[in-house]
Amino acid sequence: MTTVLIADDQAMQRFGFRMLLESQDDMTVVGEAANGTEAVGLAARHHPDVALMDIRMPGLDGIEATRRIIASGSPTRVLIVTTFDLDAYAYDGLRAGASGFLVKDALPEELLSGIRAVASGDAVVAPSLTRRLLDAYAHHLPAVPGGLPGTGDPRIASLTEREREILTVIGQGWTNNEIATRLHLAESTVKTHVTRILAKTGSRDRVQAVILAYDCRLVNAR
């Protein structure tokens, strides 16, 4: 059973989410929050598998709530719900530790599959959409001192040459199948490399690994 916390300042939106989630045999809603402060408190109390997090809420917004939930060491994974194309905060939400994001007009089956993916430890954002979002806000990244990209970051330094190569193409939006085909590797080998990359860099999931690739300038915005 996947436990879900709903955080949204719109009562009707929360009601709709609850009705949808509780129609599923494998999901249950453990709490509803109308703002970020309530979301942080309920996450600490119930330790839900997934927090469905709105960004724009009164008081403490969804980004800061996400940051606090993740910083607390909570096992809860956050799925940001946003307007995507128009919402510059989506990138900040991912950097705060969210495992992905969906648009509010996503189809019910997309929301359900997204929650299940996040609960299982995956990211719900397709690589191409991740790239699109990060490209749009790459100018928010801090400048990197001279030298080769990533050389000053101990997380990158811990990677083998092959792992660094794979992290770079993950940041470029390649899927595991594409990596296997283009680099002439077995897909099982690619999955092993990805698992090691996540462990060595402390990335919670693939989205966070993509952000790391951008932060360290392994990937440049187009």
Describe this structure in words.
Helices cover 49% and strands 13% of the residues. With 222 residues, it is an alpha/beta fold. Strands 2-1-3-4-5 form a five-stranded parallel beta sheet, sandwiched between helices. Helix 4 links the parallel strand 4 and strand 5. The longest helix has 15 residues. The mean pLDDT is 85.
Salient structural properties:
alpha/beta; 222 residues; 5 strands
Give the termini distance in whole angstroms.
41 Å
**CA-based shape:** globular
What is the element string, with H for helices and E for strands?
Answer: EHEHEHEHEHHHHHHH
Order of strands, widest sheet: 2-1-3-4-5
Task: List the total number of helices.
Answer: 11
Low-pLDDT windows of residues: none
Helix content: 40-55%
Cα gyration radius (Å):
18 Å
The secondary-structure class comes to alpha/beta
